[in-house]
Amino acid sequence: MGLKRKAGLPLYLQVKEHLLKKIDAGIWAEESLIPTETELCEEYGVSKITVREAIKILVKDGRLSRKPGKGTFVTRPKIEQKLNRFFSFTKWAQANGLEPASRILRVETVACDRHIAKHLGIAEGEQVTRIERLRLGNNEPLTLEVIWVPCRFCPDLHLHDLANVPLNDILQNEYGIPLVRATESIEAQTADEYLARLLGIEKDVVMLHVEHTAFTRGNQIVYFVTTTYRGDRVKFSVELSVS
Question: For the domain 79-237, what is the CATH code?
Answer without folding.
Answer: 3.40.1410.10
